[in-house]
Every structure is written in C-alpha cells, then in structure tokens.
Amino acid sequence: MSKKTFEVMLVGSVMALAAQAHAAEPAGTLIGALSSCQKGFFDAVEAKHDALSKIATVQRHAGGTAFIEVTGRAKEDASFVRFSAPYQDADVPLIGYFDEVRDIGTLGKYYSWGFVVQGKVDDIAKQATPRLAEAKRVRAAEGVYVRSDLWRNGHWQDDDQLAGNTAPAPGTVERVLLIEDAGPEFSGAVRIGCSLQGSVTPAMLATERPDI
User: Where are the domains positioned within the chain?
Assistant: First the structure.
C-alpha cells in the first residue's frame, strides 16, 4: 500500500468517526434550555412540539416559539398542568409544568415557570446540573439549589448573594433558577424553574418570556 493511499484511508476513517460521534450527540434537553431563564427555552419547546403535544397542550407563538399551556397563570389552583404521561428529558422524568404570574403590589410582578420532576432535590440537582447554563454558579442553600442574577443599570449582572427573603429594590429585577421541593401537593417531587421578580418591563418579557 502506498503512503498516499494510506493517508486517504486514514482521513476517511477520521471523518467517519467524527460523523458517528456527531450523530451520537444527545439532543438538547428541555431542562438545559429552561435553565438559561430566557427565550431559548420556548424555542426548545417549539422544537419538541410534536412529542410534548402528546402529553400536554402546546401552543405555538409568533417568532418560532411555543409554550406549554396552563388553565390560568394568575390563579394559584390553575397554574399547573400534569402531563398525561411522564416526559423523559434525558434521565430526568418530567411529570408536569407550572406557569405562575402574581402581582405583588409595590414590589412589582412575579413570574415563575418550569417543570415538576419526580425525585428528590439532591438527586435531581445532581442529574440536572451538568446540563444547566452556568452550572458552576449553581449553589446549595438551605435545602435548595439556586443561581441568581440581578438586572441593574440596564443589564443583567451575576449576583450570587441574593437572599430569598429580601424584596428587589425599586427599578431592579431578580432572575433566579431554583431547584426545590415541590411541596406537599406533589409528594416525592421537585420543582426546577425560573423566576423574574421586581420591576419587570414589557421589553424584558419580550426577551425572557415571549409567550406572554
């Protein structure tokens, strides 16, 4: 075999292996897309529209996005939908979706959205963390896992010191990724979700919550 023939075969083998490796890469997960707490999550819901439509009502929205519908965002007893069957997001079983909007008076608006997952907080956090945006910033605090940002002076800033019991200052917005126990109404389950709280503007909703 000539050197030239061997080199051609070698290049072909490398290209084939690269193609196989690319084909084997897992598709992006919904949890991973959600964790950015931005518009990309709703793009991901659109991309998985057909699969999600089999277990929940999924509405398409202008701009190539989609969202999972709940009966009423502003009503506590209507802001959650349980899937007709679990959705396996890689190795994380999603059993429902929540979408909450609350008016908190002088403190502004509170928006919260995400998934309810079967499992325990520490276990789900361990499974999900490798897929999370800015995973190194996710911290454990009092039984929950959190990553927090603050909108101030016209842009988002990392703020790993945000305290959950302190209201946002006027003119600011907190954006939080939270992994927490889902509460007594969902025994043995965990909430993985995002929230916006404070002086949320229409312009901000357009980039973070285009479904509203």
Answer: 28-208
